[in-house]
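Subject: sequence -> structure tokens, single chain

Hey, anyone have a minute? Need the predicted structure for the following. Not urgent.
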Amino acid sequence: MIKALVFDMDGLLLDSERIVKRSWNEAGNELGIPGIGEHIYHTLGLNRKARNEYFKNAYGTDFPLEDFNQRTSDIFFRIIGNTGIPLKAGAKELLEYAKGQGYKIAIATSTSQAYAIKEMTDAGIWQYFDGGIFGDMVKNTKPDPEIYLKACESIKMAPNDCLALEDAPAGIHSAHAAGLKVIVVPDLMEPDKETLALTYRKYETLYDVIPLLKEE
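Reply:
Had a minute. Here:
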């Protein structure tokens, strides 16, 4: 019986990954490194430290990491300053339903705490959460299970009483390894057959999770 929901954030609740990809491509073009946005498919679910290591490995020690990060940050905030970060379809409706039915709700995102809380507050959804763990609160990034184990602890729930909601393979592996049932709502990439086998359900939108909870 499901007693709690543990959500990823980027690409699941917030439609942010496409903006990140755009900011990487724009910054890469400025630095003479075209197409760098395509690397997002290899970094979904990673925290900033792990993502930095990825770029060093992909481009070598001469990669202008500090400059790239500053440019992408400036571009990202310029974009969302004009448009905000849209909510994914069904995000608010699912959170409202789950809260109304008494489910505990936690976040398990690789994004840093201060930034994640700000973005969820701006999007009008932070008030639904009872707890959570952020990327700067764990030693090991997804697909390691640490973040999901600690997210369950933050709401005083056993992993097997929790349902994880994810969009990316690294998060699926993380939640499954922690012992949660996993629902995947793909965003930028579809899970492969082996990863999909680790999930409980696959849905097109978060709206589709509400009928499942009604069956519980």
